[in-house]
Amino acid sequence: MQIKEIKEYAEIRVKARAYLCYIIGRHISQNISNGDVSTVFAKLETLSESMNKAEAIYALDGKGKQITENISKIKKLNGIGKGHDRSDRAYYYKTLREHRCTLTEPYPSTISNTMVVTASFPIYDDKDNLISIICVDISLSNILRMVHPSSIDSLSGTVSKISYTAFSVALAAVALLLFVKGISSFLHFGLDFSVIEINKIFEATILLTLSLAIFDLVKAIFEEEVLGKEKREGAGEGHQTMIRFLGSIIIALSIEALMLVFKFALTDPAQLEYAVYLISGVALLLVSLSIYVKFNQVPSKNKSDIK
Description:
Elements: H1 2-27, H2 38-41, H3 44-50, E1 54-61, H4 90-98, E2 102-103, E3 107-108, E4 115-124, E5 130-139, H5 140-147, H6 155-187, H7 198-226, H8 240-267, H9 272-295
Antiparallel strand pairs: 1-5, 2-4, 3-4, 4-5
Helix pairs in contact: 1-5, 6-7, 7-8, 8-9
């Protein structure tokens, strides 16, 4: 579900930055007059109590070197990190550039092996020289719970996943039944090919095509709504389930139109015009879907922070 969580984070990032910077600012002053930051470090424990979902809280000096040990409720993270050079981290140079409290994009932590974000709060002396940066690491799931709880823990979200799962299972069963029926409709002739009826072959092809279309719909629903997988490249903001389902329907109708052409050519050439009508409808659907996809395309963004 991390891809879906990253997208949700992108939507609430501004709100998350404002919230975290407000919480940090309540405990720590951004400016000190005597240059002594020991009083600031003494408040890190209090800050940790106020942000109990934080993975780790620590401080850097003006050159990006960690000057305090991690304060964390996670045993493997607590009490480590002092002396590490973090001047190459996004949260450090981004704070220097923006000269304010910042929040990073999600990135994989090499320590906790989870996706995290880091809020960085700069502290300056009376001459506006950077003295220290207070950093707060929070896992991606926890920042969503803090700022946008409905995205992960809501009852409606859970019910929605269960419902989509149930519909996926039911539709998969329908696809399986159509597949079995399609296979059995011509297998009962056995190996005696002389008694095979052309109509039965057409019937089997229709059933198998419908089975394929429904199975592809099930796959799209389950991946997008239950697993939260990323949409295909080029689909833009369009609903992936609808795009894939319509694509399957277009393929199915194309096969049906081709079958009608052969059938009418062999049995009743006067009926070929109806096959042409179906082919025209398929072409119209294809053009409509292409226009929909085109107008829903958005420029791809590849932004990442590396810790």
